[in-house]
């Protein structure tokens, strides 16, 4: 009945259907309906605004285990060396060295930005005045949170942009010329997915959640997919696979939107994305390989089901092989990505003696921690 009413525009007794941005802008609703993707996203942004998002005591043990904090300087120096060589070979002296760090954790982004800029300044005097490092949130923030972020910036070469690459007008951050887009640990994992289900008419339905704030109750229904969900399903699901009625799967709707925005507004970008890798199959492979519903595997694919726990972030651990395919498809061959382990990348670009000199400390323990890392990198060439 609920789907029937929505389809024919009969909304009188139904809670309003809201998206993430609308939910962030209002605070007095007693009930509302939201697609599952936006509900998880809204919860994550709320936690981030309360300052709890990257509190180690509030995070999943997997997130803490794969943190780069113990070897962050070595990762930043290796990344800076790669950018320096690539820039000198392909862009110097016709363009400046532009860096865009997209973040969820502002403190991590500031540390990374400072280390990148300081390293480039020290190794090449020709770059003086030519390195520009901007920091942009993954999601558009509310105004009070923006002022808190601005107060954290102490480095004169860093600039925090008061907008996000998602939930905002993407034309605002159009960038001409080459730019290195950096996604440090965690950003890919916070791009929320849709849960879709095959109906009896062999069409995909999107999961929606009705939220009763006063009763602290959530109920699930499936209805017509919105535009983003429909596009994501068309891109991700192979036409040759047959799915019986009742089949369910996650699809990476926000990741598709994110890569599309990058391709359209920063067409000459080179991507460096670092995150926790998924070792199990993703998307349609979940159904075709295991013949079971995705919703029964929420704890394997989506850490912290929002129906059970709303004070901890929701993660979707990416399958880097699938992310690479998705990125290459959206960029239509203009930018091609490759996947490396963090260990392989840093071993190729690291100079331990130089880093120890710059940092003025013994980094042998940091190097040891780094060699044990299981993180992976998606890097465009």
TrEMBL record:
<dbReference type="Pfam" id="PF02636">
    <property type="entry name" value="Methyltransf_28"/>
</dbReference>
<keyword id="KW-0496">Mitochondrion</keyword>
<dbReference type="InterPro" id="IPR003788">
    <property type="entry name" value="NDUFAF7"/>
</dbReference>
<protein>
    <recommendedName>
        <fullName>type II protein arginine methyltransferase</fullName>
        <ecNumber>2.1.1.320</ecNumber>
    </recommendedName>
</protein>
<dbReference type="GO" id="GO:0032259">
    <property type="term" value="P:methylation"/>
</dbReference>
<dbReference type="GO" id="GO:0005739">
    <property type="term" value="C:mitochondrion"/>
</dbReference>
<keyword id="KW-0808">Transferase</keyword>
<keyword id="KW-0489">Methyltransferase</keyword>
<comment type="similarity">
    <text>Belongs to the NDUFAF7 family.</text>
</comment>
<dbReference type="GO" id="GO:0035243">
    <property type="term" value="F:protein-arginine omega-N symmetric methyltransferase activity"/>
</dbReference>
């Amino acid at each position: 009945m609920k789907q029937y009413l929505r389809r024919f525009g009969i909304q009188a007794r139904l809670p309003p259907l809201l998206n993430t941005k609308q939910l962030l802008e209002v605070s007095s609703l007693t009930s509302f309906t939201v697609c599952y993707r936006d509900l998880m996203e809204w919860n994550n942004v709320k936690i981030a605004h309360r300052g709890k998002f990257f509190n180690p005591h509030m995070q999943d043990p997997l997130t803490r285990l794969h943190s780069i904090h113990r070897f962050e300087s070595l990762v930043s120096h290796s990344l800076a060396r790669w950018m320096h060589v690539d820039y000198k070979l392909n862009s110097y002296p016709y363009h400046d060295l532009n860096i865009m760090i997209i973040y969820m954790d502002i403190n991590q982004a500031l540390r990374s930005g400072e280390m990148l800029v300081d390293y480039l300044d020290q190794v090449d005097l020709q770059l003086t005045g030519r390195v520009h490092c901007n920091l942009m949130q993954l999601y558009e923030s509310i105004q009070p949170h923006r002022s808190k972020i601005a107060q954290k910036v102490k480095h004169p070469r860093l600039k925090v942009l008061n907008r996000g690459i998602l939930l905002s007008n993407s034309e605002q951050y159009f960038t001409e010329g080459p730019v290195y887009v950096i996604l440090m640990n965690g950003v890919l994992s916070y791009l929320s997915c849709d849960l879709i289900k095959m109906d009896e008419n062999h069409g995909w339905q999107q999961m929606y959640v009705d939220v009763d704030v006063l009763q602290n109750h959530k109920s699930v229904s499936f209805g017509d997919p919105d535009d983003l969900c429909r596009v994501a399903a068309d891109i991700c699901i192979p036409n040759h696979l047959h799915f019986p009625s009742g089949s369910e799967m996650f699809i990476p709707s926000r990741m598709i939107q994110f890569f599309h925005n990058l391709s359209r507004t920063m067409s000459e970008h080179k991507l460096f994305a670092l995150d926790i890798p998924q070792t199990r199959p993703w998307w349609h492979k979940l159904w075709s390989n295991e013949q079971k519903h995705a919703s029964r595997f929420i704890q394997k694919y989506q850490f912290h089901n929002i129906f059970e726990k709303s004070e901890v972030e929701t993660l979707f651990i990416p399958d880097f092989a699938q992310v690479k395919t998705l990125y290459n498809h959206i960029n239509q061959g203009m930018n091609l990505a490759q996947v490396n382990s963090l260990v392989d990348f840093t071993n190729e670009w690291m100079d331990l003696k130089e880093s120890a000199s710059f940092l003025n400390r013994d980094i042998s323990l940091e190097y040891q921690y780094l060699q044990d890392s299981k993180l992976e990198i998606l890097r465009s060439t």
